[in-house]
Amino acid sequence: MSQPAVFEPRRFRSTVPYYARFRLPYPDSLIRRVISLAALRHGDRVMDLGCGPGLLAIAFAKAGMEVVAVDPEPEMLAAARAAASEAQACIETRIGSSFELPPDLSSFGLVAVGRAFHWMNRGQTLDTFDRGLAADCAIALFDDDHPRTVENGWRFALRDIGNRYGRSDSPHVIQARRSDYRTHEAVLLDSAFSQLVRVSEFVRRSLTADEIVGLAFSLSTSSPERLGERTGVFERDLRSALAALSPTGNIHRDRGT
C-alpha cells in the first residue's frame, strides 16, 4: 500500500508570489460545466480546499456561488483575498486543511480541490467527507496536464532540469513511481464517492521564459525555499534550456484541465 501524505502546513510558503502570478486559472467554461454537473444553484456553498491564492475560489464566486476558501498557509490566504478583491469577487477565507476541516461540512454543496489531493491523506479525507457532507454534495478534483505536443517541449526541459536539482527525490514524486501507488480514481472508487465523471478542456497560451521560470518557482519541487542557494544556477540552467528550444523566445503551452 502507498504511504499516507505527511502534513507540512507551510510547504508552499516561498512559492506564494509565483503561484499567484504564474499558475494559469481554470477556464470559466469548465467551472460552469462543473456547476451544472453538481446541480448547484446560485448562492450554493462551495468549499475550495487547499485553495492556494484562490484560483478556484474566485472562479466559483464569480459564477454566483458562496465560497469558503481553506488553506493552511496564511500567506496563500492573504494572496487569495487580494486576488478576490481585484476580481471584485466575494470569498471567505479560513485557515485549515484536509487534516483540520471546517465544522460546517454539511452546509456545502460542492468541495473543490485544485492540484492538492495528492498532498492529503486521501482515504481518511474521503471518510471524513462521507461522515460530514450532505448526501447530495459532490467533490470535484481539478488538475492540469500537458499533452505530448511539440509545443510542450519546455515541460520536459523543466522536468529534466528539476530532476538534476532534486525533483525526483521529492517524497510525492517517489510515491507516484511506486508499484503500489493508487491513483486518485482508484482511491475514489473505493470510497463513498465512487460515481466518477471526467470533464476536461484544452487551451493554448503563448509563454515567455520569465513566465516559465515563475511557474517553476511556484512548484514545491523547485521552490526558492527548496532550492536555497542553488536558486540562481537553477534559473540559469532553465533559461539556457528554454533558449535552446526557442531562440526567438516564442513558446507555447498546451494545457488540458
User: Percent of residues in helical segments?
Assistant: 25-40%
Mean pLDDT: 92
Q: What is CATH's topology name? A: Rossmann fold
Question: Rg from C-alpha positions?
Answer: 18 Å
CATH-level-2 architecture: 3-Layer(aba) Sandwich
Count of DSSP helices?
A: 11
Number of strands: 7
- The number of domains is 1
Which key features would you list for this structure?
about 40% helix; Rossmann fold; two-stranded antiparallel ribbon; single chain; five-stranded parallel beta sheet; 11 helices; alpha/beta; about 260 residues
Please tell me about this protein's structure:
The chain has 257 residues and is α/β, with parallel strands linked by helices. The chain has a single domain (13-256), classed as Rossmann fold (3-Layer(aba) Sandwich), CATH 3.40.50. The protein has helices spanning 16-22, 28-37, 55-62, 74-86, 122-132, 153-164, 171-177, 184-189, 209-217, 224-227, 231-245; strands at residues 45-49, 66-71, 91-95, 110-114, 138-142, 202-207, 251-256. It has a five-stranded parallel β-sheet, covered by helices on one side. Strand 4 (110-114), helix 5 (122-132) and strand 5 (138-142) form a beta-alpha-beta unit.
SSE inventory with pairings:
Layout (H helix, E strand, L loop, with lengths): L15 H7 L5 H10 L7 E5 L5 H8 L3 E6 L2 H13 L4 E5 L14 E5 L7 H11 L5 E5 L10 H12 L6 H7 L6 H6 L12 E6 L1 H9 L6 H4 L3 H15 L5 E6 L1
Parallel strand pairs: 1-2, 1-4, 2-3, 4-5
Antiparallel strand pairs: 6-7
Describe the structure in brief.
This protein is α/β, with parallel strands linked by helices. The chain is built from eleven helices and seven strands. 40% of the residues lie in helices and 15% in strands.
